């Protein structure tokens, strides 16, 4: 087994923790982690296992991949060579190891597994990595080279296994990155904050609609939705207005939800520089489009709001 402990990096700040590693790209040394790990940290600290703190001098984001690389002021002695041409060097069933900061615990663990899927830009493996392992290297057992970066999990209920949950684990390939975008740290985090606001409102609207369907008290996390919902509640609960006015208030509220579901996305569209955030906004737009369609049904079924406990 190859010893890569000297190339492992713990990534953390006050907001959270993740993983990283030192890799060799064509003779150049970089610190690699996921874009989503770096995006969630305004002042990330990169530390080797021996306590050495690494100082980045520049950053680049991979186009079409959740991967970020940093050039270092003083690269460490040990690095992991990046594997290339995976179509010819790897096969389904090959053993792999994922090394990283499991659960953000500040210690590096080794998670063995095997390759169960190879795609144009990503890999699927059985190594049981968890949050905190984001940014960990997926190391190919036969060659000892890093072939991917642990990135995300997908969960689905097993319809045939007694109601259990099946978890699939994916990482982005390093050999399929074609373009790297230079990162301005202030601009990068400004875009992250803007997209996060859109995501927060999406979640708030979804939770609100679910609460209405279940006749529960909604938790209003964003000011925009809280303001519209409060105005609707006040009008709907006013004993002095007619049934027709209550219905009109409900229709007005639904119209405001329609506007909320598209206005912030439209305002941000075209202003994002980084491909990673443009892709995230496109995902939010798809969800919002579905929400927009659901408001037509809501306008028919919510003629008279039930605001008990609201």
Write the layout of secondary structure elements.
Layout: E1 8-13, E2 16-25, E3 28-33, H1 35-39, E4 45-48, E5 53-54, E6 56-62, E7 68-72, E8 80-81, H2 86-89, E9 95-100, E10 109-118, E11 122-125, E12 137-140, E13 146-157, E14 165-173, E15 180-182, H3 185-213, H4 223-236, H5 243-268, H6 275-301
Parallel strand pairs: 2-8
Antiparallel strand pairs: 1-2, 1-4, 2-3, 3-7, 4-5, 6-7, 6-15, 9-10, 9-12, 10-11, 11-14, 12-13, 13-14
- The helix content is 25-40%
Mind telling me the CATH class of the largest domain? Mainly Beta
Q: Supply the number of helical segments.
A: 6
Mean pLDDT: 86
What is Rg? 24 Å
CATH topology of the largest domain: Thrombin, subunit H
Which architecture of the largest domain does the CATH hierarchy give at level 2? Beta Barrel
What does this structure look like?
The chain is an alpha+beta fold. The protein has two domains: 5-182, Thrombin, subunit H (Beta Barrel), CATH 2.40.10.120; 185-301, Up-down Bundle (de novo design (two linked rop proteins)). It has six helices and 15 strands. A hairpin with an 8-residue loop joins strand 9 and strand 10. Helix 3 (185-213) runs parallel beside helix 6 (275-301) and helix 4 packs antiparallel against helix 5 (243-268). It starts with 7 loop residues before the first strand and ends in a 9-residue tail after the last helix. The mean pLDDT is 86.
């Amino acid at each position: 087994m190859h010893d890569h402990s000297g190339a492992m990096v713990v990534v953390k700040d006050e907001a959270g923790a993740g993983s990283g590693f030192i890799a060799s790209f064509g003779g150049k040394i970089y610190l690699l982690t996921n874009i989503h790990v770096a995006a969630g940290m305004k002042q990330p600290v990169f530390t080797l296992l021996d306590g050495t703190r690494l100082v980045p001098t520049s950053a680049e984001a991979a186009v079409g991949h959740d991967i970020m690389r940093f050039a270092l002021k003083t690269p460490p002695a040990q690095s992991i060579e990046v594997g290339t041409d995976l179509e010819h060097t790897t096969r389904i069933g090959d053993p792999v190891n994922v090394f990283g900061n499991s659960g953000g615990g500040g210690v590096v663990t080794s998670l063995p597994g095997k390759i169960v899927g190879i795609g144009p830009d990503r890999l699927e493996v059985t190594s049981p990595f968890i949050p905190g392992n984001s940014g960990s290297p997926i190391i190919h057992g036969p060659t000892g080279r890093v072939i991917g970066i642990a990135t995300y999990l997908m969960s689905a209920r097993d319809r045939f296994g007694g109601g259990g949950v099946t978890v699939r684990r994916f990482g982005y390939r390093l050999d399929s990155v074609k373009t790297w975008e230079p990162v301005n740290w202030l601009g990068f985090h400004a875009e992250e904050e803007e997209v996060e606001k859109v995501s927060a409102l999406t979640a708030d609207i979804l939770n609100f609609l679910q609460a209405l369907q279940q006749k529960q008290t909604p938790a209003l996390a964003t000011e925009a939705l809280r303001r519209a919902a409060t105005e609707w509640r006040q009008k709907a609960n006013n004993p002095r207005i007619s049934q027709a006015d209550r219905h009109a208030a409900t229709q007005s509220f639904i119209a405001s939800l329609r506007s909320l579901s598209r206005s912030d996305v439209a305002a941000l569209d075209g202003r994002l520089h980084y491909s990673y955030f443009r892709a995230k906004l496109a995902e939010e737009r798809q969800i919002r489009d579905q929400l927009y369609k659901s408001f037509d049904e809501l306008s028919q079924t919510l003629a008279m709001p039930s605001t008990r406990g609201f």
